[in-house]
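Q: What structure does this chain adopt?
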Amino acid sequence: MTADAFRRALEAALIALDSFEAATHALRDALQELLRSPTTSAKELISVTDVVHRYPVSRRTVLEARRKGHLKGTRPGGSTAILFDPADVEAWIQGRSNRLRVVR
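A:
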């Protein structure tokens, strides 16, 4: 590699590093804002396990409802955990109970 090519490669790396640092700062600011927001709190969201413990549904039913779009869930920060807003879960449960019939 020539000295000129090496210099261009270093300059390109510095530009990329500056972009990365800018993106990192923007992400940090956005996360801090989310933490300060009263409407966004980990305490307000519940896991699949929480749903199963609170309501008479199976884990499979909850995951299938999410997959089909009947129940909105989120994976925060690229996590593997799926979290739900309790109000969304309650509405979904109420909708399910309205559709269920007792068969005798």
